[in-house]
Design brief:
Helix content is about 40%, strand content about 30%. It is of the alpha+beta class. The chain has 5 helices and 8 strands. The strands form 3 sheets. A 4-stranded antiparallel sheet has the order 5-6-7-8. Strand 7 and strand 8 form a beta hairpin. The structure holds zinc ion.
Amino acid sequence: MRSTKIVSILLAALFVFSFAGCSSKKKCASCGKTEDEVELFLLDPKVYPNSEDAGNYYCSVCYRIAVSRIEVPEIADAISDQEKSQSDEAALKEMVAKFFDAFDKGDYEQMKPDCSLNCISNCFRDGGVFGMKRAKVTEYGPGEFYETNQGVHMYKIKVTVDMEPLEGSSLAGQNSTSFYVLLLQNVGGKWIIHDLKTEV
Ligand SMILES: [Zn+2]
């Protein structure tokens, strides 16, 4: 009887533990994304028995960085920088897409919050932006990060749009055009839409 009781206590404890295990979600040990958000990968202790990070779970990006820290530490920072600029780029493209969502609706006020004062004073006019009343992106070119001679970090992406020209603008008579959207990283590190240009 006594052993049955012990077994049932053990079973109860096991139940509680496994239940607790289910409700606490696995997270990336580096960036904290949960298993609900991304797929997680185990840094296998059998493969990396000498690493103090072994046994941790990582998202795919942090996993690559964690493995390179063990295997080729000299390139880990380079990979980390590259991954970081790629995630920056996704955010910048999202900002540009949001800008054009508003432009497609002719909602100029909604376009301004992500723009620099330079962009607002150069490109915005009564009833239009950059010679157009409305513009809808039909194609994005490849984006590119670059640096000005003054060391300012920039990003440019070419867009092709279907558009409605402003009366009297140089685009009058056309219904599509291509130009560049230039973004700039300000001193606080925040990216903003800085200019629209036909040529860069
Ligand atoms: Zn991560």
